[in-house]
Specification:
The complex is a heterodimer of chains A (about 110) and B (about 120). Chain A contains no helices and eleven strands. Chain A is mainly beta and about 110 residues long. In chain A, the strands form two sheets. In chain A, strands 2, 4, 5, 6, 9, 10 and 11 form a seven-stranded mixed beta sheet that branches. A four-stranded antiparallel beta sheet of chain A has the order 1-3-8-7, with no helix packed on it. Chain A is globular. Chain B has about 120 residues and is mainly beta. Chain B has strands at about 5, 10-15, 20, 25, 30-40, 45-50, 55-60, 65-70, 75-80, 85-95, 105, 110-115. Classes of the chains: A mainly beta (about 110), B mainly beta (about 120). The interface between A and B is medium-sized, with 26 and 26 residues.
């Protein structure tokens, strides 16, 4: 069966510090991978998605970047965090083929920028 | 442009009563529709999806949803609510078009089942 991991689970960082959140998927190959941010326990905003190694699409211009160094690894980064980067960050995967494929979400990382 | 509307921020229902969480969508072409549930400080869990075929879709934990093309709706239902169903529910849509990888989520509906 497939599983998705995210770490860390919680993170408190000062403004201006760097960020690296990691997401890995097990039990599947060549997945589509996604990063979402959820603010205030409500709506999800798609930040990045990837259909393959080194292939990243950004949905909104922002202070963040993403990378996919390996097939099942997706990293969310920032060089300098802003207060507005606080939120709940969710990684998800779906099967590569099939528009009707559902996305499966990781447990999330709670980021607080002070 | 694609969008999803969940008109109710909060739904309260008594335990044992039927529940409905509403969702309407706007998308060009045929949609793929999804429901997810989120418990506090957790990731989203997939409940069910509509791709094609029968308009009534059955999913996990006794939930079902009915696709209504004329009303562009995909309401989530359960015949008898449990206290453990209390959570945040999200409807999502993906347009049926090549290269469309993204899910568009509604703003969520908080369901509270009262014992």
């Amino acid at each position: 069966s497939q599983t998705i991991h995210q770490w860390p689970a919680t993170l408190v960082q000062p403004v201006g510090s760097p960020l690296s959140l990691e997401c890995t998927v097990e039990g599947t190959s060549n997945p589509n991978l996604y990063w979402y941010r959820q603010a205030a326990g409500r709506g999800l905003q798609l930040l990045f998605y990837s259909v393959g190694i080194g292939q990243i699409s950004s949905e909104v211009p922002q202070n963040l970047s993403a990378s996919r160094p390996q097939d099942r690894q997706f990293i969310l980064s920032s060089k300098k965090l802003l207060l507005s980067d606080s939120g709940f960050y969710l990684c998800a995967w779906s099967r590569f083929r099939g528009q009707g494929a559902e996305q499966f979400f990781g447990p999330g990382t709670r980021l607080t920028v002070l | 442009a694609q969008s999803v509307a969940q008109p109710e921020d909060q739904v309260n229902v008594a335990e044992g009563n039927p529940l409905t969480v509403k969702c309407t969508y706007s998308v060009s072409g045929n949609p793929y529709l999804f429901w997810y549930v989120q418990y506090p400080n957790r990731g989203l869990q997939f409940l069910l999806k509509y791709i094609t075929g029968d308009n009534l879709v059955k999913g996990s934990y006794g939930f079902e949803a009915e696709f209504n093309k004329s009303q562009t709706s995909f309401h989530l239902k359960k015949p008898s609510a449990l206290v453990s169903d209390s959570a945040l529910y999200f409807c999502a849509v993906r347009p049926y078009q090549t290269g469309a990888n993204n899910l568009f989520f509604g703003t969520g509906t908080r369901l509270t089942v009262i014992p």
